[in-house]
Write a structure and sequence with these properties.
The chain is mainly α. The chain has two domains: 85 residues, Arc Repressor Mutant, subunit A; 55 residues, no CATH class. Helix content is 57%, strand content 5%. The longest helix has 26 residues. 11% of the residues are buried.
Length: 174
């Protein structure tokens, strides 16, 4: 209840939900699962249970913790939450398929090029400039591929490649 607005009139439905969660351990667990998965990262079952237990206390899943977690995930899916699961070793675990997107306001580049960079690039012949351009293009594809696979571990290779091309080139596949 620490996260709730102090004035109950501002969001009465939040206070009602919080009171219900205190009275219903399964609702509290399910709310905690969504809170943990809200970071957008995959969480293997044991790690997800540990993080929920840190929020709610040990043994919140009861004696059959694994089955309880599976039942909670099934209930959340029945309620319309899009919870995925990946068995891929790089990104194994449960994840929200559509978590809130957090956009950084920090610039990832400098506005003005470094004078040393300008001098270096001007000294290159056309073949070196073209090779560098293709290397940067391949790097962009690889980075987009890594990001797309981490955001969508359930997609097949063809779908990942189509999304990568759309992100890097800016066009839909033919």
């Amino acid at each position: 209840m620490d996260h709730l607005p102090r004035n109950r009139r501002e969001a009465p439905w939040l206070w009602i939900l919080a009171a219900q969660a205190e009275a219903d351990p399964s609702l509290a667990r399910r709310m905690a699962i969504v809170e943990v998965l809200g970071d957008g990262r995959p969480h293997p079952g044991p790690d997800l249970r540990t993080e929920v237990e840190e929020l709610l206390g040990e043994d919140c899943f009861g004696v059959q913790a694994e089955q309880t977690l599976e039942a909670d995930i099934a209930a959340l899916r029945d309620w319309g939450l899009r919870i995925g699961h990946s068995d891929s070793p790089e990104v194994e675990g449960y994840y929200l398929k559509d978590p809130a997107v957090v956009v950084s306001r920090q610039r990832l580049y400098e506005e003005e090029p470094n004078p040393l960079q300008i001098e270096t690039y001007r000294a290159w012949d056309n073949a070196r400039k073209m090779r560098s351009m293709f290397e940067m293009f391949e790097f962009a594809l690889q980075q987009a591929r890594i990001g797309t696979r981490s955001r969508h571990p359930d997609w097949d290779d063809e779908r990942v490649e189509a999304e990568v091309r759309r992100l890097v080139i800016g066009s839909e596949p033919l």
